Amino acid sequence: MKLIAKHQIACASQPLFSSQTQGWDNISVEEFHHPAGEGRMLYPNDHVICLSLAPRPVRLLQIQGDSSYTGLYGKGDFSITPAEAPFFARWESDDRLLQIRIASRFMEQVATEALAMNSDQLEVIPTFRTRNPQLEAIMMLLRTELNQNNLGTRLYIDSLTNMLAIQLLRQYSGSKADRLVYEGGLPQRQLQQVLEYIHDRLDRDIKLADLAESIGMSQFHFCHLFKRSIGMSPYQYLLQQRIEQAKLLLKRSDRSIVDIALECGFNSHSHLSKTFRQLTGITPKAYRAN
Predict the structure, then answer these.
(1) Could you tell me the pLDDT band of residue 180, with boundaries at 50, 70 and 90?
(2) What are residue 92's phi and psi, to 5 degrees?
(3) Are 179 and 224 in contact (CB under 8 A)?
(4) 17-171 maps to which CATH number?
(5) Which residue(s) pair with 28 in the sheet?
(6) Geometric angle at alpha carbon 55, from 52 and 58, rounded to 5°
(7) Burial group, residue 241, by CB count within 10 angstroms (0-12, 13-18, 19+)
(8) Which DSSP string corresponds to the chain?
């Protein structure tokens, strides 16, 4: 486990990758690789998920409050530790893991706005070794963004954070989650306002909260209504518009592909090329030559 915590014992190993230098909101993602050892953690304001990335199963002793578990953790196994819960672990061999902390206040907001839950009675269930393909997939997508250190993807990170929170609340909460029904989409005036907001900021790192706040709506409702309005998520639309802008610049100017990438919100030539190929099937250079 990542065992660095406020006012607690810290492991000697430092994270291989950490989102704390990238300014992500409501979530912290760190990857660790450390030798046999032990440690404690206590996060008063964050719920913690630890996903094993170990190529070979690792034997662990884990203690959460009055409960304990001893057994093997293999790749894909994870544990959940609620905020304010003291946690101890001892592992007998080299361990590799992904630790994700998600702010408890954010979870409360998601519970209220997205799932119609009573946040005052919100309880995240402590969980030892378990598996969940949906949660694992979201966590691995967050890991990919962390390792690639892509700029201009804040909207994507925000969307993954929302998905992770909702999955945790639906499957690892002691409170009942209601399924909200979203009818129709955004009113035309609000939709146009959001689309203009995106078009005016294609070169910037747009946050999901910024889009929602621009029309005075919670981000959770906004995501559903936006998708109902135009058939794709805010992030997919942003990516599509950045590529369309890149196409125009490639055909109508002789500027370098690097300059075009930066103007369209990508952080490098390779970042634009990868996304361009994914959406169009060809590279920017080949598109310009056609």
Answers:
(1) low
(2) -95, -5
(3) no
(4) 2.60.120.10
(5) 101
(6) 60
(7) middle
(8) -----TTS---SPPPSEEGGGTT-SSEEEEEEEE-SEEEEE--SSEEEEEEE--SS-EEEEEEETTEEEEEEE-TT-EEEE-TT--EEEEESS-EEEEEEEEEHHHHHHHHHHTT---GGG--BPPEEEE--HHHHHHHHHHHHHHHHT-SS-HHHHHHHHHHHHHHHHHHSBSSPPP-----S---HHHHHHHHHHHHTTTTS---HHHHHHHTT--HHHHHHHHHHHHSS-HHHHHHHHHHHHHHHHHHH----HHHHHHHTT-SSHHHHHHHHHHHHSS-HHHHHH-
Question: Could you tell me the residue ranges of all domains in the chain?
Answer: 17-171, 188-231, 240-289
Of 61, 59, 128, the C-alpha closest to 94 is: 59
Residue 84 structure tokens: 């304010």
CB burial readout 50-82, b (16+ within 10 A) else e: bbbbbeeebebebbbeeeeeeeebeeebbbbbb
Give percent above pLDDT 90 in the chain: 60
pLDDT in tens, 216-257: 888 888 988 998 898 899 999 999 999 999 999 999 999 999
Contacts of 113 (CB under 8 A, 6+ apart): 218, 219, 220, 221
CATH superfamily of 240-289: Homeodomain-like (1.10.10.60)
Give residue-wise pLDDT tens across range 260-274: 999 999 988 998 999
pLDDT in tens, 103-148: 999 999 888 887 777 777 788 999 999 999 999 999 999 999 888 7
Same fold, 17-171 and 240-289: no
